[in-house]
Every structure is written in C-alpha cells, then in structure tokens.
Amino acid sequence: RKFPQAHPLAVTSVSFARDATQVLSTSFDQTARIHGLKSGKTLKEFRGHTSFVNCGLYAKDNTNHILTGSSDGTVKVWDIRSTECLFTFRPGSALASMSSSL
Fold it and tell me: For position 33, what pLDDT does the model report?
C-alpha cells in the first residue's frame, strides 16, 4: 500500500502494530503518525518533539503506548488513544528503569 500523504518530509522509521492493522511512522517533520494499513489514511498524529523524530515503536506490553526518539535529545512515551505525551526522558535519566516495564 502507498501512503502518499504520510509525511511532508522524509520518513525516518516505520514500525508495525502487533495486530498488523496499523503502521507507525516517524519523520524529519518532527512528528510520528499512525496509519491504517487498509485505508492508507493517517489515523493519529503525535506532536511535541522540537527536532527530527528518528525512531518510533509500539510498547511491548501495552498496545496503547508508543515511544519515539528524537534528535532533540529526548525519548517520549505517548498514549495512542489521546495522542498525549505521558513522559519525556533524556538518555541517562530514569529511562533505563522505565524501559523494562514498557
């Protein structure tokens, strides 16, 4: 499937949901987006980083959260349902202890 309106700038990563119905993409446009694989449409958009979003993934144990890493030096945890940022970490902070629970 093609996603012609996925992002206005280059895509930096993609990650498939466990149920294979959606794909998470990140971009130079400072956003992460979830797209429906059947519809090809953007379903959710996550804004809050201040530089390129380099990577994104679905949390292992909770399908209602995604994580993004950015060139702004932060990792963010997002609620998929509300698109709100729940936590922001800088590498070397509490991230190491948090990663084992996600």
Answer: 95
